[in-house]
Specification:
Distance between the termini: 33 Å
CATH superfamily of the largest domain: ATPase, nucleotide binding domain
Largest sheet: 5 strands, mixed
Strand order of the largest sheet: 5-4-3-6-7
Number of helices: 14
Helix content: 25-40%
Radius of gyration: 22 Å
Number of strands: 14
CATH topology of the largest domain: Nucleotidyltransferase, domain 5
Structural class: alpha/beta
Number of domains: 3
């Protein structure tokens, strides 16, 4: 175990042995923090109106949260009748969290402050992930990034979130690795192993679902409360947001979308992961040019032959459209957010084409959702991992 340097017990999980009054107080504190995180700085009067709590109760809560270092006062708002109001906002130094993204080609650890700003990050690339390699990177990177914090800031480390693909051992064939080299993942509890090294909690989530959580936690204030989330990475995945909360389902894999059944241009049955993942674009580029490393190592700008890109889009977009129509036929979702590890220009192109492709499918009895771009891009998964401890310890579940 690490030393008390990593001990963090402020506003911890609900103490079920305490009184109902204590539980209600903690619930109200989380309610206020959740509203401020999603809507931005607000005066106390607005917070009271949005929460339904009395002005006196809100004042007590705000003083406690400010005393705990989780809130701070903004600039006075003038120009209205009466005394100027002072908006309250989340304090960047209020807490720090780690977000570990485990990918098929790289692992990345981000240190994030209470408002979602990335303080520092480290990345390690590899041919394929193994439990030992991932665990060693995570533990050493946490220690290294912790040195960027003062002792007082280290005391405010609230946890580490882990965004990793579920069933990693099943992807060996798709990434060109012998199954035996990935078999060690089966039965390996990465979350428990990481938690064993530190005195703060660890939380695990599906990588694409975590990206959805990042949109809810760190996205724009215009993020809708209900939406299907599509994330196009090396493998396509997704998440489902209901009532402003990530819905993970019985096994934690709800909305993952990768296994969704689709039909290829040749009429064969396959899964969405085979049709709309960046691995498909990578293989096309390798077949044409012999090298596609640039779409794996950086996401801001790509120089791709238009014919190759069009061939991939013509397979990926119709498959995504079938997934969207299938989803809205079960849940009447008003919006779909699409993001990915790609240039923003390509993301915009996919969104535009997806809007049109949906209307090429039978929509009788359905209300087509609004198709929108996500706001976080390549940072969505590590930020999504970081959102797990923040959500678990400082926000309401619904």
């Amino acid at each position: 175990m690490e030393t008390d340097l990593y001990k963090s017990d402020f506003i911890d999980e609900f103490d079920t042995s305490g009184s109902n009054q204590s539980l209600m107080r903690q619930r109200n504190e989380r309610l206020v923090l959740t509203i401020l995180r999603r809507q931005g700085p607000l005066p106390k009067a607005d917070i009271a109106r949005k929460t339904g709590l009395s002005a006196q109760t809100v004042s007590v809560i705000m003083r406690a949260l400010e005393r705990d270092g989780l809130l701070e006062r903004g600039e006075k708002l003038r120009g209205k009748i009466g005394q100027p109001s002072i908006p309250m906002r989340l304090a960047p130094q209020g807490a720090f969290v780690f977000g570990l993204k485990v990918g098929r080609r790289s692992a990345e650890l981000s240190l994030v402050n209470f408002v979602g700003e990335e303080v520092a990050h480290l990345i390690q690339t590899y041919d394929y992930p193994t439990p030992e390699l991932t665990l060693n990177f995570a533990t050493s990177a946490v220690r290294e990034l912790s040195q960027n914090l003062t002792p007082a800031q280290r005391h405010r480390i609230a946890g580490i979130g882990i965004a990793a693909p579920f069933f990693l051992w099943e992807w060996a064939g798709m990434i060109g690795v012998e199954p035996a080299k990935m078999a060690a993942w089966k039965g390996f509890d990465l979350c428990a192993e990481i938690a064993r090294h530190f005195d703060f909690p660890a939380y695990l989530g599906n990588d694409a679902s975590c990206a959805c959580s990042a949109e809810l936690t760190f996205g724009t204030t215009e993020t809708p409360p209900d939406f299907l989330y599509l994330y196009i990475g090396y493998f396509v995945g997704g998440g489902l947001a209901l009532n402003g909360t990530l819905f993970t389902g019985r096994s934690g894999n709800a909305g993952a979308i990768g296994p969704f059944p689709v039909i290829t241009r040749d009429g064969a049955q396959t899964q969405l992961v085979n049709a709309a993942s960046l691995i498909g674009l990578e293989r096309r580029l390798e077949h044409r040019d012999g090298d596609a490393s640039h779409i794996v190592t950086q996401s801001k700008s790509w120089h791709i032959d238009e014919d190759v890109l069009e061939d991939w889009l013509n397979e990926a977009v119709p498959a995504l459209a079938r997934c969207v129509v299938g989803a809205i036929s079960i849940i009447d979702l008003p919006a779909v957010l699409l993001d990915g590890n790609m240039p923003v220009t390509l993301r915009a192109k996919i969104v535009e084409r997806l809007r049109a492709a949906i209307h090429d499918l039978p929509l009788s009895g359905l209300v087509p959702p609004e198709i929108r771009e996500g706001s976080l891009g390549a940072r969505a998964r590590p930020l999504g991992a970081a959102s797990l401890p923040l959500s678990k310890r400082f926000m309401l579940d619904s």
